[in-house]
Amino acid sequence: MKYLIGNWKENKNLEEALTFLQVFKSLSLGQNFLARKIILLPPSLFLIPLHQKIRELGLPIELGVQDLSVYEIGAHTGEISVSMVAEFVRFALVGHSERRTGLGETPEAVNQKISLCQKHNLVPLVCLRSTADLTPLDFGTASQKPVIVFEDPLEIGGEKASDAKKIIEFYNQVRLK
Question: Which of 30, 38, 106, 113 has the smallest number of Cβ neighbours within 10 A?
């Protein structure tokens, strides 16, 4: 399966997000997306209205959450738990380098998030900057195997995608581990 994942980060307001879906619908008419899974990662605040609009428009888009709490439930102000979003998303981005470097997210926290995703039948989209990030991770034995997402920290938020050769080399290294 090929994935096309759009991480919106802090971009778009709700009106812009809904307009994006309308434009996508008009541009995608007659397109065959069966060979790809299109996943949008909008700000969590927009998950419910986007989920409703995607269903209303019959779009071949699935939603994911940009991050999850390491806690399943509890008194954790500002956190988004897996049980809060599991009804609206199928995917969760975990281990993004912005969270690792900027917020000190540890491999242990990434493992906790992978485990919570698997427990709640979400597919973890596990971000790796290099194969070294793979070593401390535990993907468990659950049926929801993670999708490995290569991210070059030097190109995050940039105007261009990573070089195809770099991505293929990374994929081949991960496959051998």
Answer: 30
Token pair for 143? 């049926």
- Name the CA radius of gyration of the chain, rounded: 16
Per-residue pLDDT tens digits for 48-98: 999 999 999 999 999 999 999 999 999 999 999 999 999 999 999 999 988
One-letter-per-residue 3-state SS of 96-151: CHHHHHHCCCCHHHHHHHHHHHHHCCCEEEEEECCHHHCCCCCCCCCCCCCEEEEC
Exposed/middle/buried for 42, CB within 10 Å: 0-12, 13-18, 19+? buried
Place of tokens 């995917």: 91
